[in-house]
Structure formats: C-alpha cells, structure tokens
C-alpha cells in the first residue's frame, strides 16, 4: 500500500512517497519503510529537488551538517557522500545567502542544479528534515546522529595570512641582510708581521735579597 | 486519587535528583573544570539577543526557570546574572566558569524563550532579506531598527569597552548590527524541532577531542 508523508513549512515542502512492507489495518499508523520518491520544493523557486533513497540520505546529511556549520562557524567535512545525487551547500560570501548544488544521477540529468536559498528557506529545509527524523512512522531505519566536530577541524584563531606575516618578515629581513652583506667587500686579512722586540720582562737574577741581611747586619756591628 | 499520587511522586523525584530536562542535551567530555570561554560568551550573547527581542525578557526567563524546574541550578535573578557574567566580554566579568549543568540550563532557557518568539524572529529576518534585496540599509525597516537599537544599547551598557573585540563592535554601528543579525539567525535555528540539541552541539564544535 502506498504511503505518502508531507512535511510542510512556510517556505519549504518535503514529500516522501513509498510503501510499507508490513500491512497494517490503520492507514495512519502505517510505517513508510521503502522509499520510492523524495521531493523537495521551495516557495518561489521553480526548480524542485527529487530523487530516491540515496538522494534523501545525501540531502539530510549535507543539510544537517551545514546547519551545524552555520551555527558554530566551524566547517563540517563532508566526504562520505556517494557521488550519485551528491548535494553540496556553501555560503555565498557577503550576500547572506546559501547555495545548494545538486548533482543529479546520470540517468535523469547531467548538469548540476543550483538553488540560492535565504537563511529562512534554509532553516525551513532543516526543520522539514528534523520533523521527518522525529516522525517514527517514516523510514525508522534512517537516523541522524548529531555530533560536534573534533578539535582537528577547528580553524586557528588567527587567519593564516596573519600568522604568516611575522615569519615572512623574518625571512625577508634575513634575505635583505644577506644581500647587503654580500655587497660589502670582503675584508683583507693582513697577516701579522713578526716583530723582533726585546721581551719586556726578564726575570731578574734572584741575588738581591741575599745581601740584604748582610747590609742590615753591617750597622749593628761596624 | 491516582493522579494526585503520581504528581506527588514526580515532585519528590525532582527534588532529590537533577532536573530531568537536562537529559535532553547530551554530555560531552570537556577538558578542564568548566566550559570554554567561547561557549560562555556565545550563550550570553544569545540571551542578550533575546532581551533585545522582547521587553521584560529577564522576567520571562525567570518564569521559564520556574516552569522547567530549573530553580536548583538558577535559584534567582542574581544567580542568573552571575552565570551570564561568565562571558569574558562583560563589564562584570567574574572569571567564573560554567559547569555543564549550568550551561545546559542556560541553553534550555534560551531555546524555550526563542521558541515563543518564533513569529517575531521570522518577521525580522524576512524584513532583513527584503531590505537587502532592495539594497537599502537594514535599519531603515522600523521593526529591524527597533531590535537593532535595543541590541546595541544592551551591548554597550553591559560589555567591557576595554576588551579589544568589544571596542571594535562599539566603534562601528554596522558591525554591531551584523552581530545582532547573525545572533538572530542562530536563534531561528533554535526554534526548530531539534533546535535545542543543534544549538547545544554546535557549542562544542572544535572543542571535543
């Protein structure tokens, strides 16, 4: 039996269609366990995003990670997406907007699809995804684990350019000093000429103290 | 009879153990006795943005503390003020650190307040978008101007101008407006289904091993 779930936000609608492999009498409680089609629309954007399970998995992973990146300002690396239906999100610098790029699988279309989202639209997409994860009747096997990124990904407090300045100044001054010193003439080494000079000190013969007791004794007995 | 008994048992449980609501947010191993300065600063700035959004925000925060049974951690307004003074940018910076429970309590308060302000936050951000599309300065819109004025006055009266970063913000109205708007956008994410958790986890980005 076909099951259709919609998560409708003011700017974004997420629709998941599929069927349940366990038949239930009550249509409301029916689990959506096998996804056939996932669609995502934005109000005011004609282009829609659409795909199967891989598409949905990529969408939720990259959107969720980008939302965390947006909150903390620290990049969340996204290297575990499959190449099919890949989804990238990036901030457009200086514009307060976000660019979502979807690379559809080859069978549908070859060229990537780009959507420019405002922060409110981005939030509605995140919220649609969070509501889907909070809904235990839809794809219960798909879960999202939110986790902070490790210290390794933390950018240094000072930008690289600023940290490079002292080191490059040091290197530059070393180069300048080396160049200036290179231009200076090499001082000529003058060999010291050997000089014949009498040695200033000569040990005196140690004879003077010996007569002194004699001279001292002479007045006593003249 | 039975509902009465269950209420009694609930309240007795709450008094002997930590507030259950804290378990909504996961624990992360942090190095050192308290939270990093960046976390303390960020939480206080979020609360500051909430104060700029509604009049009497601190009273509403105290009411929220009562509703959520967080009085054990934040007993009164002085404790709340002292916890917020762990923001190193504050004039009244106390060189204290928040422990995980206190940080969680403040994040929960901020999220609950932000959720009640959802409509207002969305209105302001849509207005910002309109102004940017038209190429007009953001404070030409009357709603935005009110929020930005409030934020700037709270910021300048409470933050220490001798701090380098604070003095940069105080010197430029445009920079301070940008800070106020970026905090508003973060608060928008807080209003969602998993907003509180997203908010909390983002604080630890780059802080865990």
Automatic annotation (TrEMBL), chain A:
Protein's UniProt keywords contain Transmembrane: yes
Ranges annotated as spanning the membrane: 164-186
Matches recorded under InterPro entries: DUF4335
Region (Disordered): 190-222
Extent of Pro residues compositional bias: 195-212
Keyword Cell membrane (UniProt): no
Amino acid composition bias (Low complexity), ranges on this chain: 213-222
UniProt name for this protein: DUF4335 domain-containing protein
Originating organism: Aphanothece sacrum FPU1
């Amino acid at each position: 039996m076909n099951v259709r779930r919609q998560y409708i936000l003011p700017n974004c609608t997420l629709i998941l269609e599929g069927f349940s492999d366990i038949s239930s009498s009550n249509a409301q409680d029916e689990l959506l366990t096998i996804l056939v089609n996932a669609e995502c629309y934005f109000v005011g954007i004609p282009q829609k995003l659409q795909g199967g399970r891989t598409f949905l998995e990529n969408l939720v992973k990259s959107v969720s990670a980008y939302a965390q990146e947006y909150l903390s300002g620290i990049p969340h690396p996204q290297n575990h997406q499959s190449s099919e239906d890949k989804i990238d999100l990036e901030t457009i610098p200086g514009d307060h907007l976000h660019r979502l790029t979807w690379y559809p699988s080859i069978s549908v279309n070859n060229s990537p699809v780009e959507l420019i989202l405002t922060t409110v639209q981005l939030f509605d997409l995140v919220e649609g995804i969070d509501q889907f994860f909070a809904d235990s009747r839809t794809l219960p096997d798909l879960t999202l684990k939110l986790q902070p990124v490790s210290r390794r990904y933390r950018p240094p407090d000072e930008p690289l350019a600023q940290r490079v300045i002292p080191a490059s100044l040091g290197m530059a001054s070393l180069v300048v000093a080396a160049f200036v010193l290179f231009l200076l003439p090499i001082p000529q080494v003058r060999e010291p000429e050997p000089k014949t000079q009498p040695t200033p000190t000569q040990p005196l013969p140690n004879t003077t103290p010996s007569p002194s007791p004699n001279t001292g004794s002479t007045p006593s007995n003249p | 009879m039975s509902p009465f008994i269950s209420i009694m048992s609930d309240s007795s449980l709450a008094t002997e153990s930590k507030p259950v609501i804290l378990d909504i947010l996961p624990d992360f191993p942090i190095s050192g006795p308290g939270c990093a300065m960046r976390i303390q600063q960020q939480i206080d700035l979020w609360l500051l943005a909430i104060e700029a959004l509604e009049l009497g925000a601190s009273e509403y925060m105290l009411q929220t503390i009562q509703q959520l049974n967080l009085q054990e951690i934040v007993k009164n307004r002085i404790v709340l003020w002292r916890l917020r003074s762990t923001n190193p940018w504050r004039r009244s910076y106390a060189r204290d650190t928040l422990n995980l429970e206190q940080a969680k309590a403040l994040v929960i308060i901020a999220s609950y307040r932000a959720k009640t302000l959802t409509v207002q936050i969305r209105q302001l951000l849509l207005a910002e978008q309109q102004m940017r599309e038209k190429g007009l300065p953001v404070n030409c819109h009357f709603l935005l101007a009110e929020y930005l004025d409030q934020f700037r006055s709270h910021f300048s009266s409470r933050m220490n101008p001798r701090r380098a970063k604070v003095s940069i913000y105080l010197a430029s109205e445009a920079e301070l407006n940008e800070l106020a708007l970026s905090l508003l956008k973060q608060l928008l994410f807080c209003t969602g289904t998993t907003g509180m958790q997203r908010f909390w986890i983002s604080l630890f980005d780059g802080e865990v091993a």
